[in-house]
Amino acid sequence: MSSVLDVTVSSMMGKVPVTVIHMNGHVDAANVGEVEDKATDAINSGAANVLLDMGKVSFMSSAGFRSIHKIYQALHPEGGSGHLKILNPSDEIGRLVKTLGFNNFVTMLSGDLKQAVDSF
Amino acid sequence: MAKTFRLELRARLDNLAEIRSFVGETARELGLDGAAVEDIKVCVDEAATNIVKHGYGSKEGDLSVELHREDGEVVVRIVDRAPPFDPESASGPELGLPLHDRPVGGMGVYLMKTLTDGLSHSASPGGGNELVLRKRIAGAGNS
Known about the structure:
The structure holds two protein chains of two kinds. Chain A has helices at about 30-45, 60-75, 90-100, 115-120, and strands at about 5-15, 15-25, 50-60, 85, 105-110. Helices cover about 35% and strands about 30% of the residues of chain A. Chain A is an alpha/beta fold. The radius of gyration of chain A is 13 Å and the shape is globular. The longest helix of chain A has 14 residues, at about 60-75. Chain B is of the alpha+beta class. In chain B, a hairpin with a 2-residue loop joins strand 2 and strand 3. The mean pLDDT of chain B is about 95. At the A-B interface, helix 2 and helix 3 of A face helix 1, helix 2 and helix 3 of B.
């Protein structure tokens, strides 16, 4: 039984262009590289706003938070917030975001995708 | 003697999902509720990941995960044969720093300490490690 994670990337236009990384499954040390690779490719290609669509992620370990930390640092080299947001995290993942002190820097949203894209 | 549930398998990252599934189902059977089950799954995943990546490293070995209920807690015992490593000695994340200045890492052990009600490590006399995690069962007396 290996961890199953599907990662797809799409571009959406709100007030600004937003790269959406859709994840479906469990995020752990076995598969997190896929999230990181796809986010890094997007950022290297010019993406400045990234939305992690996590409504279908039922588990995430610190490996996933490590990737989110790296994505945040790539998008906010000078600090601040607003260019990386998480959509519809599970209750557990939302609690971990706060436990790890990410919540002051990475916005958590709930609701539909279009609204989330328009929030950038 | 409390009933003990045991899983033994090769320490590999592609076995993490099986470990989480076993821990989740067993912890629920032993009395933990939804959020506590998720917490203990995260903690055991972190422990197993550390064993694979930092314990055995480039080599491969076995690990076992045992759960039982004791004194109103679910107790998880994780045993490996890797070189000794005490999670208590690992430095945690620098939560006081803003994220862009904060070194990446240290979160796994921090979560293990934060999400459990007890963590203890001992080096096995013949080599290897034994890590014990405890999670209190909401509303349970000592049993």
